[in-house]
Amino acid sequence: MDFLFLLDITFFLLAGLGALIGIIFGAIPGMTATMAVAVCLPLTYALGLHHGLALLLGLYVGGISGGMVPAVLLNIPGTPSSITTTFDGYPMAQKGEGEKALKICVVASVVGGLISAAVLFLFAPLLADFSIKFSYVEKFLIILLALSVIASLSSSMLIGIFSGVIGIWLSLIGDYSISDGGNGKTRLMFDFMEPYLFEGFSLLPVLIGIFGISTILLEAEKGAKSGLVNERIKISRGGGFSLSVFNGRLTNLVRSSFIGTFVGMLPGVGGSAASVLAYTQEKNLTRDSSQMGKGAPQGLIASESANNALTGGALIPLLSLGIPGDSTTAVLIGAFTLQGIQVGPLFIPENTETWYVMMTALVFANIVMFFLMFYAIKYIAKVVMVPKHILFPIIVMMCVVGAYAINYGIMFDVWTLLIFGILGYLVQKIGLEVAPLIIGFILGSQAEIYFVKSLESFGTYSIFFTRSPIAVVLWGLIVASVMFAIVMGFKSRARQKMELTQVTGSTPTASGKGHDTN
Amino acid sequence: MIVSNKLMTSVGSAALMAALSISSGVAMAQDGPLRGNIRVVIGSTSTGGDTYQNSSIVVDQLAEKLGLNMKVDAVGASSAFRTLDRDSRGNTLMIFHDQSYLGYLYGVEGYDNIFEKYTVGPTIAINPGNAYLVPKDSPYETLDDIIAAVGSGETVRVAIQPGGVSEIGFSALKNAIAIEHPGQEDNLVAVNTGSQSDKNQQLFDGQADVINGSVQANEQYTRLPEDDQKAMRFVWLTARQDTIEQAPEEGLGQTTREQLLEYVEPNVNVTMGNDENFTFDKEFFFLYNKDMDPAIVEQIDEALAEIYEEGEIQEIQKSAFFIPDFKPSDEASTYLADKMVRYEEIINNIK
C-alpha cells in the first residue's frame, strides 16, 4: 500500500484535467486521443512520471470518449473508433433523441472502461502470454472477421460488398511502408501524385470528409427552409433517458466490453476494429437487429463500450510486453522512455508502485469522464438546435482546421477532406453505401499487411486454415457471420416484399421510399 | 446561447493548448539567427525508441540554452526527410542516426545521399545497445555456433528491418561467413520485418532463429526463466568494446556492464578479413536543410558545445544508457562520410 503516499491532490486534479482536455480533443473532429497525448507528452518531464501518467491516462480515456459527441450529433466520428457510433447515434439525434443517445453512450463507455481496467489489473501478464499466440495469420483472420460486417451492414449485400471493396482499394493507395517490412514503393497512382500520396490518404480527413462534409452537402441540398421545420419537431421531442434502456442489454454491454479489451490487447490491430467487431457481433447474436443502423440503442452500447474497453486492453501488451496495443499507447510509451524506464515483461513486478498508480489514474479518469459528460450532455446536445446555416459553416471550419492539424500542417489533408466529402456525397447519390466503404478503407491496409506477412512467413495458403486452433475458431466465426448476413438478407427481402404488396394493395401511389421513415 | 457554449468550448480548448505550449518552454528573447518555434523531426515514428529518447534529452537542453520553444516530433524517416526538404528557414531540424545513409547504401526508397542533399550537423550520442538475440533455449550458445552452423549448411533465419542499422550487422555476419566458409553464406537468411515487436513475435512464433534488437528493448526478456516462451539471450552487441566500457558500471536494468562486455569484441568476433573485426556504433546526429543559414549551424554548434562543457547532459545521457558523443558539424560530417565509406565496402562485398 506504499503507493497511496504517491497519490496527492495534484495527482487527481491532473487525471481529471486530462479527462476534460481529452474529451475536448476527442469531440473536435480531426483531433484525437493520440494527438492529445502527443501534445502533452513533453509535460511529463516537468511533472514527473506518476503525475505525468495521471495526466496522460486522463487524456487517453477522455479522448476516446469525446469522439462520441460529434458522432451522435453531427454524424462525424470524432475519433476513428467512434465510427460505428454514427450508425445509430445520428439517426437518433435526427429523431430528437440526441441527449438520450449520448447518455447511453456515456454509460456504455464507463462500463467498458471499468471492465477493461479490471481485466488489465487482474490478468495482464496472463493475457499478454495469450496475445503473443496471435501471429500474422490470426491477426489477418480477426481483421477479416471485422470486415465480414460489411455483408450485414448494408441493405443490399452486393452493393455493400462492392462499396467495401472500393474502400479497401482506396486504402491500398500509397507505399507499402518499409516500417511495416514492405519495399517502400508506391502503387495505384501516377508519378506526379507521389509527393501528396506517398503515404496514402490520411485516415481522419477521409473519415471526416466522407461522413461530415458529405452529410452537410446532403443537408445543404434540402435548403434552409425545410431545415427550420425539422428543427421545431426535434425540440419538442426531448431526451427521455433512463437506465431501463440497458434492460436486456447487459450481455451486449459485457460482451462488447470484452471484445474491446481483447482487440485492444492485440498489438497492431487498430482501435476501430474493436468497435466494428463488437457492432458485428451484436448484429449477429441479438434476437432483433432490424433496427440497428436506424437508431437502435443496442448499436450505441456495442460501439461505445467496445471503444472505451480498448483503453485497458491496449495497456496490457504495453505494460507486460513493452509493446503498445494501439496508436495512443504507442505515444504513451514515450512517457516511460523520457523517464528512462524500460517497459517490458518484468515492468509490473519491478515497478509495482507505478503499476498501482496507473490503475488508480485509469479508474479515476473513467469516473471523472462519466460525471463530466453525463451532466454536461444536456447542454452539449442542444448543438443540434443551432440553425443549420450557422452550425454548418462552423463545423466545416472545424473540420478544415482538424484536417490541417492532424499531421501537423499538411495542406493535402484539407484537399483529402474535400475530395472525400464530395466522394461521399456522390457515392450516396449513385446508391452505394458509405459505411461499408469506410470500414473497408480503415481495415484494408491492415488486412493486406497481415496477409502478405503470413504468406512471407509460412509460404503457403493452407496456413490460414492450419496454423492453430485459434485460426480454426476464427474461421468458424467468419463463416457464421457471413451465413447470418445471407439469411438475414433473405428474410428482410421477404419482409420487404410482403410490406410492398400490402402497401401497393392499400395505397397504389406510394413509392418505394417507405422504409426510410420508420 | 448554444452558439456561445460551442464558442466557449473552442476558446477554452485554444486557451488550454496555448497554456500547454507555453509551459513546455517559454520563448524568451531571441538574439541568434534561430527564431520562433522549432520543430525537430526524427526518423522514427516511435516515441518509445532510442531516437526519440535521445533527441528529447538534447532538444530539451538546447531549448533551454537558446531560450526557444522546441519540440521533438516522431514522424518517421520518409516523412521527416520530406518535411526537412520543405523548410530552409531553420524552423524544422532533423535528428536521425546511421540509418540515414545506410538506407541510401542499401538502395531503400526515399533515401538520398545525405552528404549531398543535406547539411550534416553535429553528432550527439551513441546508443551502444544494438544487439542480436536468440531464444533462451536455442541450440546456439554463441555467435561462433551460429557461424559454424551456417558454415556446415544449416539454414539460420535472422529477423531484421531491411535497409538500416538492423541490416548492417546481418550483412557483416554474412560477409564473415563468406570469408570463413566460402559459398555457405546464403544459408544465412534475412526475414524482413518491421518494428521491434514484429521481430520479437517472429522469435516467439519460431519463424526466426535470431533477431535484431537492443539492450534497452530486450534486456527484460533476457531475465525471464528459460521455460517462458518469451525468454531470450544476447549473443552479440555490435558496439565497440571501447564504447561499452564508457557505459555506467551498473549497465541497464539488472544487466551490468561487465555482463554486456561478454557480447562484444574480442569475446565475439565477426571478421571483415585482414584481421579486422566488424563493429558498429549507432550514432545520432542532426541533419539540416541544405539552404539553411550557415549562421544557424554555427549557433547550434556553439550552444551544444557549451551544453557539453557544462557536463550535465552527459550524466542524463549515461543514465539512459547512451554514450555522449559530441562532434561539431564539420568534424561530424567528415567523420560520418568516412564511416559511410567503410560500411559501403561490406555491403558491396556481399552483393
Automatic annotation (TrEMBL), chain A:
Keyword Nuclease among record annotations: no
Transmembrane segments: 12-41, 53-73, 101-128, 140-170, 196-218, 258-279, 355-377, 389-406, 472-490
InterPro entries: DUF112_TM
Domain DUF112, residue spans: 13-439
Record key words, sorted: Membrane, Transmembrane, Transmembrane helix
One Pfam family cited in the UniProt record for this chain: TctA
PANTHER family the record matches: TRICARBOXYLIC TRANSPORT PROTEIN (PTHR35342)
Protein name: DUF112 domain-containing protein
Protein's organism: Vreelandella boliviensis LC1
Lineage, opening ranks: Bacteria, Pseudomonadati, Pseudomonadota, Gammaproteobacteria, Oceanospirillales
Automatic annotation (TrEMBL), chain B:
Extent of the signal sequence: 1-29
Keywords: Signal
Keyword Iron-sulfur: no
Stated name of the protein: ABC transporter substrate-binding protein
